[in-house]
Amino acid sequence: MPGHPEAFGAPGMVRNTLGATGVATGSAALIGARQSRLPMTVHGGAVHLAAPRTLGGAAAVWAWPIQPGPQGAAWAVAVAAYAARGALLVVRGARPEPV
Fold first, then answer.
1. Whole-number Å distance between alpha carbons of 43 and 82
2. Using an 8 Å Cβ cutoff, are 26 and 81 in contact?
3. Number of C-alpha atoms within 13 angstroms, CB side, residue 78?
4. Chain segment 32-62, per-residue pLDDT in tens
5. Around Cβ 79, how many Cβ atoms within 10 Å?
């Protein structure tokens, strides 16, 4: 369960940082830099409220921020978010903000 550093420590923090950075970066390209933190904030809050008590399975995909550090499916989602949304930002750039 959360609170055990051997399962939820540094590997989980690195994974969550990569995934959250990817989501925020992709959001900057789609909805603008000012609001880019909102999708990850909403998703993170929803995951902590709605995720099942049992870890793994299908929840490892949509509830990747609360999975144990070595969970493979959670890593795949976080790395995919980082790579895909990073590529989106490179291709589109940040959405221009109105002046």
1. 15
2. yes
3. 26
4. 888 888 999 999 999 989 988 877 788 888 9
5. 14
pTM for the whole structure? 0.80
- Closest to 23 in 3D by CA, of 56, 46, 7: 46
Sole residue written with tokens 């929840």: 59
CA–CA separation, 23 vs 19, rounded Å? 6
pLDDT tens digit sequence for 64-91? 898 888 889 999 999 999 998 878 877 8
Residue type, 90: V
The dihedral over CA atoms of 65, 54, 10, 23, expressed in degrees to the nearest 10, equals -10
